[in-house]
Amino acid sequence: MGLALWMALAVLFGACAAPAAAPTGDAAAPATAPAAESATEQIAEPDIVEGMFNVAFVYVGPIGDGGWTYAHNQGREYVEAAMGNEVHTVYLESVPEGADAERVIRNLARKGFNAIITTSFGYMDSTETVAEEFPDTSFVHVSGFKKNETNFANLFGAMESMKYLSGMIAGARAQADGSTRIGYIAPFPIPEVIRHANAAALGMRQTCPECLMDIRWIFTWFDPQKEREAAQSLIEAGATVVITGADTPGPVQVAGENGLYGIGYDSDNACEVDRDACLTTPYWNWGPLYAGLIDEMMTGVWQPNDIYFDVDSGSLGLLGFMEGEEPFPGVPAEVIPQVRAVLDRMLAGEFTRFDLFTGPINNNKGDLVAPEGVQLTQSDLEGIDADLGAVLGREGCTICMNWLIEGIVPDAEIPQ
After folding, report:
1. Helices 287-299 and 68-83 meet at what angle, rounded to 10?
2. Residue closest to 118 by CA, chosen among 172, 170, 155
3. From 4, 109, 273, 358, which residue has the greatest number of CB atoms within 10 Å?
4. Which among 405, 155, 123, 200 is positioned nearest to 305, based on CA atoms?
C-alpha cells in the first residue's frame, strides 16, 4: 500500500480489533472515568490524582464488548492491582476516531496525565499530533506504526501466530466433519487483517490441505448485526467453521445456532457465548506489558520504540491451550498434540512470525510471491512500502502483503 492510502486508512479505520455483540463478561462499571457519549455529544474527561502517576486509556469500544476493549481494560485492571499504590488509571470508552479522539487526547494531556495509551488504529494520527504538543507526556499507540524519538511509541504483537494455530484447529474440525470449507470474517482491508486471515489459511492447510477459506469483508470493527449476517452468509455458502477477525462473539453464537463451530477473537471470555460451539479464541494479555511500560516511564528509562512482541512474550494466548487450560469439547483429539507442539516452539521463541511466513508461498491466484526459503520482513507483514518506509525511517517492503494466500478461495479479492 502506498503512503497516501496508508494515511487515509489511519484516519478512516478504528481499533485494531473491536467491540462485541453484547457484554459477555463481568466487566466492571467505570469507577474512575465516565463512559464516553456518542460522537455528537460531549465526552467528559476524568481528572488526575495528585501525587500519583496518572495513566489514561482511550478505548474505541465499550469495556463490556467481550473482545478488544474488554481485553485492554483487563490490562488496565491488572495495572491497578499490581501498581495501585503508585499508579492511578482511568479510561474513556467508545471514543470516535478523528476530531473527537484528538480533542479527548489533548484534553487528557492538558489535565496533566503522565501517560496516555490509545487503543485504536484510527487514533494513530491524533496521538502523533498531540504528542508533538506535549513533549513531557508519554504516549503509546496500540496497533499502528508511527512513533517519535522522544515521547511517542507504537505497540502491537504477532497475533498472526495464534491465528495460524486457530487455522490448524479449524482445518482439523472441518476434516473431521467431512467438510472442505471454512469461513473468515475480515473487518477492513489493512495489512493487520490481511496477515491474520493469511495466517489462519496457512494453519488450515496444515491439517486440511484440501480445505478452502471463504472470506467476508464487513468494513467495521464493531457491528454485531453485520458480524452475525457475515457468519450466516459464510455458513450458507458451505462453511462449517467460522473464524472471526472482528470483535464480537456473535459469529460463534451464529455457528452454534446452526449446529456448527466458531472461533472467537481478542479476549479470553469470547467463548462464553457458546462453549460447545467454540473451538478456541486467540486472545491478548495486555496487563504485564502495560505494567512494564508504565514502570519504565516512572523510573525514567522508557524509550519510545517500535514494540512488536511475539508469542514468547507471554502476551498472546490461545484459549484452551495455555497453561492450566483445557481444549474445548469440539476440538478434534488428533489435532491437540499438533497444536501444542507448535505452540511450545512459539513460546520458546523457536518458531516466530517470520518462520510462519517463509517461502515458498503462493497467493490465492496460484502465483508465487515468496520463493523457497525467503522470509517476509516486518515491513512486508505490515505493508510498509518504500514511500512510507522513508517517512518512518524503515526499510520498505519487497514482498508487501497486499495479497491473499493460497488456501483462500481463488475468487476472493482485497477490496480497494
Report:
1. 50
2. 155
3. 273
4. 155
Residue 221: what pLDDT? Answer: 84
**Cβ neighbours of residue 147 under 8 Å, at least 6 residues apart?**
141, 153, 154, 304, 305, 306
Number of domains in the chain: 2
Confidence of residue 321 (pLDDT cuts 50, 70, 90): very high
pLDDT for the residue numbered 61:
85
Residues 360 and 227 in one domain: yes
pTM: 0.88
| Domain co-membership, 175 together with 273 | yes
Whole-number Å distance between alpha carbons of 245 and 60? 16
Between CA 116 and CA 366 the distance in angstroms is 45
Chain-centroid distance, C-alpha 116 = 19
Which residues neighbour 217 within 8 Å (Cβ) at sequence distance 6 or greater?
186, 187, 188, 189, 415
Q: For residue 391, what pLDDT band results from cuts at 50, 70 and 90? A: confident
Helix (H) or strand (E) holding 242: strand 241-244
| Gap between the Cα atoms of 313 and 289, Å rounded | 9
Contact (CB, 8 A) for 74 and 286: yes
Beta-sheet pairing, 212-217 with 241-244: unpaired
DSSP 358: B
In a shared domain, residues 265 and 374: yes
The residues, any chain, with a CB within 8 Å of residue 166's CB and separated by 6 or more, are 200, 203, 243, 263, 279, 280, 282, 318
Residue 140 has pLDDT above 60, yes or no: yes
| 341 and 298 inside one domain | no
Name 331's Cβ contacts closer than 8 Å, sequence gap at least 6. 169, 172, 173, 279, 280, 320
Domain with 178 in it: 159-284+317-392
Indicate which CATH number applies to the domain containing 185. Answer: 3.40.50.2300
